[in-house]
Structures are given as C-alpha cells and as structure tokens.
C-alpha cells in the first residue's frame, strides 16, 4: 500500500531542519501564548505547561486561573491572573469575558487541563469554543469536555488535540469514524487510521503509542521514535507543540513534528 503520507523522524535526524534553524531571535517576534487551566485542587498541568512554553522559547506567556487557586498559588506563581470560580473551585461562566479578552490578546491559547469535572465549566468552554476563532490547543481533561460532542472540535480550524490513545478512541467512536482505533492495532494500521481521520476532520492530532509519538495534520502523519528515557508528559508536549506552531503558523505539520525533537 502506498503510504507517501507517512514521514519517519528520529531525535537525531529531524525531518524539517529548516524549521529548527529559522526560529525567532527576538522575543517580541516569538509569539504570545495564553495558558488556561487549573481548579481548586490542582495547578500541576498549568505549572508544567508554563515552564515548558518558556523553555521552548515563547515570547510572552499569560496564565489564566480560577480565583480558587489565588490563596495557595498566588505567592509562588507570579504569572497567574485570576477569574471567578464555581463553589467547587473550577472556572465559572462569569470568567468568559476575561477569557475572551485575553485570548484576543494572544496568538494562540492552550487549554492545559486540570479543569476538573464541572457542568458550569463545560458550558463556559462550549461558549468559548463557539466564540473564539484563534489557534487553540487542548490537552488533558480539557479534551474530555468535548469527547461526547466532538463535532465542535473536529470541524474547527487551527485546533490541535494532544490526547491519550484512550481519549482518541472515544472521540473517534462518538464522531462515528469508520475506522476503529483499537488497542490491538499495529503501527501501520494506526498510521493509516490517523491519516484517514485527519483527512476527514480539520483538527490536528498528537498522540503517543507503540513507543512513538505521532503527529497527524490534514492526512499527513509523522512518527517520532521515543527516546529510551522516560517520555515527557502530554502536557509538556502540548506546550512545546503550541509554541512551535505559533512561530511557524503557515507550516502546521512541519512545526508540530519538529516540536518533538
């Protein structure tokens, strides 16, 4: 079978070295990123995403947190900005206006996760997705909010999902995708399924499976073999991918693939 859409990469041999050598030298040209996440019981994903974005070379980062975290996080994390939270400590619908304002400032928004499970937060995210038309990355439990109604994400341009294989399985099943992502699926069948899935849907996909990380954009698929050491978390992968994408907007497949090396 012809698989010209599949591109193999290793850490030692990047597929797109020109992307590596053409990064912005000036911080003002390196992109503006908004990171959103956290709830009263957890700040880990946001903190990790912030550190990874800074390390990846983002120009300016702003971080939006529910105000339930202000007392515990405010003194140690100076980058946070706070919006109203629900009684359980998740993002409230009242934070929509500030979320829209901050996302309008940014070149792209990362929903980093640790959002908790809250019906009011679900309504907020749905409204945000419907109003916001900029570059958007989702990771962690931010993806879970849309697994039951995937059309909102899968038909959206400039959207990257950094998700687990189990999340992809559920998302594809609920989208009535014709090829099933099964746990028994081998390397080549996974590549074929990712090719077909992103050919049918506008959303870009990053997943980790079978000792490799896969990027799928508009039917093009790259596989990058994982280093023998412990792989980075999906949160870190999402932050790095978003930074590289914002700095190489016309080349999403090349940017997301290169972010892995």
Topology:
Blueprint: E1 6-9, H1 17-21, E2 32-37, H2 44-56, E3 60-66, H3 70-73, E4 80-83, H4 96-105, E5 108-113, H5 119-131, E6 135-139, H6 141-147, H7 151-154, E7 159-162, H8 165-174, H9 187-200, E8 204-209, E9 212-217, E10 220-225, H10 234-247, H11 252-258
Helix pairs in contact: 2-10, 6-8, 10-11
Q: Could you characterize the architecture of this molecule?
A:
- It is built from eleven helices and ten strands.
- By secondary structure, the protein is an alpha/beta fold.
- The protein has a ten-stranded mixed sheet with strand order 1-10-9-8-7-6-5-2-3-4, with helices on both faces.
Which structural traits does this protein have?
single chain; 261 residues; alpha/beta; 10-stranded mixed β-sheet; 11 helices; globular
């Amino acid at each position: 079978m012809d698989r010209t859409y599949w591109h193999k990469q290793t850490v030692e041999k990047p597929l797109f070295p020109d992307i590596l050598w053409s990064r912005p030298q000036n911080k003002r040209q390196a992109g503006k990123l908004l990171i959103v996440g956290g709830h009263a019981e957890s700040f880990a994903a946001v903190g990790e995403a912030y550190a990874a974005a800074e390390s990846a070379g983002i120009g300016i980062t702003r971080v939006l947190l529910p105000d339930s975290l202000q007392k515990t996080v405010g003194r140690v994390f100076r980058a946070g900005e706070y919006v109203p939270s629900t009684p359980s400590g998740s993002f409230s619908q009242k934070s929509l206006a500030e979320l829209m304002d901050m996302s309008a400032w940014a070149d792209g928004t990362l929903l980093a996760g640790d959002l908790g499970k809250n019906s009011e937060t679900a309504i907020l995210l749905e409204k945000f997705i419907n109003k916001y038309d900029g570059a958007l990355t989702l990771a962690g439990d931010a993806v879970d909010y849309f697994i039951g109604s995937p059309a909102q994400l899968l038909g959206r341009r400039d959207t990257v999902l950094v998700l687990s294989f189990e999340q992809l399985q559920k998302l594809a099943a609920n989208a009535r995708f014709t090829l099933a992502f099964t746990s028994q699926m081998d390397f080549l069948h996974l590549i074929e399924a990712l090719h077909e899935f992103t050919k049918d849907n506008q959303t870009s996909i990053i997943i980790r499976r079978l000792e490799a990380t896969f990027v799928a954009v508009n039917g093009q698929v790259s596989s990058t073999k994982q280093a023998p050491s412990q792989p980075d978390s999906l949160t870190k992968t999402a932050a790095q991918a978003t930074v590289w994408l914002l700095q190489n907007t016309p080349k999403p497949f090349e940017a997301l693939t290169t972010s892995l090396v």
